[in-house]
């Protein structure tokens, strides 16, 4: 086993990707990032998130605007760089959209992954960290959720793409001993880099709790709708395992260390704090640390939502030597810093418009 040098990060301009890139650079890796800007902001020079990641770390990033469905383009990137390991974030991830456009999700997420694996194999690169989700567990049969909990009983197409990919990776690993893969099942990533320079700025309509709550706190949205107050939980609202995005990023660096030191074939780890937090609890922590008031409106449960989900992250602790460090307070403080420093997110690409006056431009 040799120490990895160059890491290819797919979806590197996105929310989790850009935070992970910061940690990779700080850990001394060379980063080649690719993104098709499906859900990340693009400007004249490429990705503002990655430019700011360079600013934070003082290190350069090689970036390509590229799409995993464009095989020759991805092949060229692998020809140019000696990639030691791939961290694969690139995927469509909106649950609602996935129900309306299943083919788009299957094509993008499954075909994108197939193309990537084939190109990796043809370039003799067999090391990968895959970005999976706790959504693969479906409605929990027991809590906290261990990695041995059954998977596959999922109610949305997005979640099924993650599950199908995990199954594909099992088959691949069984067929060819060369592969060395870690699948990381994220719980609910929130927060931002403590500098406030990078954070979550989705280009698509978003529905996740923390970004929505921050918009309400900023006055950009009038009220936060709490979906369901009749759940079988202490305060009646849904419970999730919120994890600081920088803890999540560090989990990837820990995964790289394990892959570079041992041939583990295929392993799966939960990345969560092990602590469940209700919607109401998160709102009250956010209000306290940001000194804002979030008006609430209670509505019926959101279709497909589960009652409660939190991780047992013991396996990641024992095998990756990884545990979370950041509190719920820090998740809220850091997200709020990003939001207040960048109320409109990253500077957006200005489309050149032609002004026509009296028929002359
Ligand atoms: N919620 C509200 N109001 C909102 C938004 C969310 O009350 O405006 C509640 C939800 O009902 C849920 C909790 O806040 O109880 C968290 O909701 P999010 O949308 O932030 O996160 P989810 O747990 O629904 O979804 C996340 C990821 C998905 C992934 C899923 C797996 O965003 O990509 O976890 O469980 F599929």
UniProtKB/TrEMBL annotation:
Protein name: UDP-glucose 4-epimerase
Keyword Cell inner membrane: no
Keywords, ordered alphabetically: Carbohydrate metabolism, Galactose metabolism, Isomerase, NAD
InterPro entries from the UniProt entry: NAD(P)-bd_dom, NAD(P)-bd_dom_sf, UDP_G4E
Record Gene3D superfamilies: NAD(P)-binding Rossmann-like Domain, UDP-galactose 4-epimerase, domain 1
Molecular functions per Gene Ontology: UDP-glucose 4-epimerase activity; UDP-N-acetylglucosamine 4-epimerase activity
Pfam families xrefs: GDP_Man_Dehyd
Family as reported in the entry's similarity comment: Belongs to the NAD(P)-dependent epimerase/dehydratase family.
Pathway: Carbohydrate metabolism; galactose metabolism
Cofactor entry: NAD(+)
Catalytic reaction annotation: UDP-N-acetyl-alpha-D-glucosamine = UDP-N-acetyl-alpha-D-galactosamine; UDP-alpha-D-glucose = UDP-alpha-D-galactose
Subunit structure: Homodimer.
GO biological-process terms attached to the record: galactose catabolic process via UDP-galactose, Leloir pathway
GO cellular component assignments: cytosol
Lineage: superkingdom: Eukaryota
Keyword Isomerase part of the UniProt annotation: yes
EC number: 5.1.3.2
Summary of the function given for this chain in its UniProt record: Catalyzes two distinct but analogous reactions: the reversible epimerization of UDP-glucose to UDP-galactose and the reversible epimerization of UDP-N-acetylglucosamine to UDP-N-acetylgalactosamine. The reaction with UDP-Gal plays a critical role in the Leloir pathway of galactose catabolism in which galactose is converted to the glycolytic intermediate glucose 6-phosphate. It contributes to the catabolism of dietary galactose and enables the endogenous biosynthesis of both UDP-Gal and UDP-GalNAc when exogenous sources are limited.
Taxonomic source organism: Leptidea sinapis
Occurrences of domain NAD(P)-binding (ranges): 8-334
């Amino acid at each position: 086993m040799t120490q990895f040098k160059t890491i290819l990060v797919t979806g590197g301009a996105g929310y989790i990707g850009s935070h992970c890139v910061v940690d990779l650079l700080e850990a001394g890796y060379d980063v080649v990032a690719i993104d098709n800007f499906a859900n990340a902001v693009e400007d004249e020079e490429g990705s503002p998130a990655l430019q700011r990641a360079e600013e934070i770390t003082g290190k350069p990033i090689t970036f390509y605007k590229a799409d995993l469905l464009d095989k020759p383009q991805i092949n060229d990137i692998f020809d140019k760089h000696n990639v030691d390991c791939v961290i694969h974030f690139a995927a469509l991830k909106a649950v609602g959209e996935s129900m309306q456009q299943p083919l788009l999700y299957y094509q993008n997420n499954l075909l994108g992954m197939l193309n990537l694996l084939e190109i990796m194999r043809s370039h003799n690169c067999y090391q990968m960290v895959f970005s999976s989700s706790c959504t693969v567990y479906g409605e929990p049969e027991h809590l906290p959720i261990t990695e041995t909990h059954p998977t596959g009983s999922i109610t949305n197409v997005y979640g099924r793409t993650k599950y199908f990919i995990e199954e594909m990776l099992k088959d691949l690993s069984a067929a060819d001993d060369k592969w060395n893969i870690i699948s990381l099942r994220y719980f609910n990533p929130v927060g931002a880099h403590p500098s406030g320079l990078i954070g979550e700025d989705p280009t698509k309509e978003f529905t996740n709790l923390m970004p929505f709550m921050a918009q309400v706190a900023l006055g950009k949205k009038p009220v936060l709708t709490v979906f369901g107050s009749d759940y079988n939980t202490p305060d009646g609202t849904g419970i999730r395992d919120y994890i600081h995005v920088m803890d999540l990023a560090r989990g990837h660096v820990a995964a790289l260390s394990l892959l570079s030191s041992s041939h583990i074939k295929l392993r799966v780890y939960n990345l969560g704090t092990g602590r469940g937090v209700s919607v109401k609890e998160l709102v009250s922590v956010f209000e306290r640390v940001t000194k804002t008031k979030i008006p609430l409106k209670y509505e019926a449960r959101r279709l497909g939502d589960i009652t409660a989900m939190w991780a047992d992250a013991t396996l990641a602790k024992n095998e990756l030597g990884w545990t979370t460090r950041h509190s719920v307070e820090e998740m809220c403080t850091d997200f709020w810093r990003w939001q207040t420093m960048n109320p409109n997110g990253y500077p957006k690409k200005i489309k050149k418009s032609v002004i026509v006056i009296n028929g002359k431009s």
